[in-house]
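mind reviewing these tokens:
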Amino acid sequence: MKTHKFSLALIGCGDIAAYVALFAKTLPRFSISTCCAANYEDAKRFAAKYGIAQAEPDYDTLLARNNFDAVYLAIPHHLHLPFTQQALRRGYPVLCEKPIASTLYHAQEMIDTTEAVHGKVGINYQYRYDQKCWQMKQEIQSNRLGKIFQIQINVPWHRDITYFDSSPWHRQLATAGGGTLLTQGSHFLDIALWSLPNKPMYAMGKTTRRLFTSPDIEIEDLAMGIVEMSDGTLIEIVSTMTSVPGRPATITVYGERGILKYIASSLPSLRYTGIKPSRTFQPLTAHGIHALARSLRAFQFWIQGGPPYFTSIQDAFPVMAVIDAIYRSSLSGKQEGIGLGMQ
């Protein structure tokens, strides 16, 4: 698809924003024209480091400039709702870092606002633009594995105390909304839900704190959940930030004809047992050197009238609803229904 020049405003200047700024440079006719952060000096340093033309002192001033095509939100989860609403009401499309919001109710409010103004909001679940995840989805939906019995997701990642010290908002439920399941595991749970043709119905789960037990850290560092789909397929997820050393996340799909295993290493791979890889795959329309670059490009295409972005805010709602049910189950000790009816 031929594109015209596309300009993005970057809100937040932390670690994720740095990756966005770096990968944006690899995309032709794509630029970050302006940025802002809670601290103006941080924004100016970020702009100088990544060659961004303008740093603004605050979000209101940035939105008033009207010299960009869309907004990227790389900010604490509890700010996703008000910042998205503000951008939409100014007429700007939004690409928001995952998850949608800090709570399911905030996520629904974001959807309501998006639909009320006929806006476009994408949620950056970038693994949907991982070539091997895209290949796995096609293998599942082409029925080459036959009936899917179960999917096992393992996210054995490692974080140390600097994770909380560098971004203190991660410590609190009110600002983060959750811990390892929402922030890390949701990437891979999203891929499993996206790949299956049926809807999630029920969930059970348990969350706990095993490493980060300080009273001022409220979010879980270990979570386990089981999700039942409408056709009986079970998804099991284990997500942690306590693994020493951290290991690549995996998604293992068990079907009646074989097994697929996705490994999220620096060079992602897909291993086949029982069946051979298909020789025909629909290619990704967005190109780039990394899944994040392809996600940025696909968002650009969508805003410029091209193919739909894989993770519109409506598409990202199911994973938020499933995680909400797992958290509720951890508190109740019971199976909980998944509230997709909110949309």
